[in-house]
Here is the input.
Amino acid sequence: MHIVAIEGVPYAWLNQLQSIHAHVFNGANLPLAKLESKEGLLCLFAIENERIIGFKLGYTHPDGVFYSWLGGVHEDMRGQGIASQLMKKQHERLQLLGYKIVRTYGRNVRKAMLITNIKHGFDIVSTFIDDTGRHKIIFEKSLL
Here is the structure.
């Protein structure tokens, strides 16, 4: 397994990205227009045998903080530390790009991701209820 980092829309990997996104997020679509609208988009892919087995996407939030937006690992590959490797590589890349803070949102129903965030140095800074009524936890980590 190796990790590929792509700045901007990963057109060459788009079909595979959309497929694994649907797998991880119960069939949810990831429209190309949504990817194209994200300033400073950074995509990391865990690749095995030329297939994406895990991904981590993020972009520059309007306040200048990097927002780690979406990610996941194929269910057959979970429990092997792939999400942690993707997160570590993302944070290394963000430091090189000059970001000082990375932010992400979590939900209590995705406990494995909450634990991974805390293990990797994120702090819980707030919570909110989104437009669909879901409770979300805001995590931030200093990259300095």
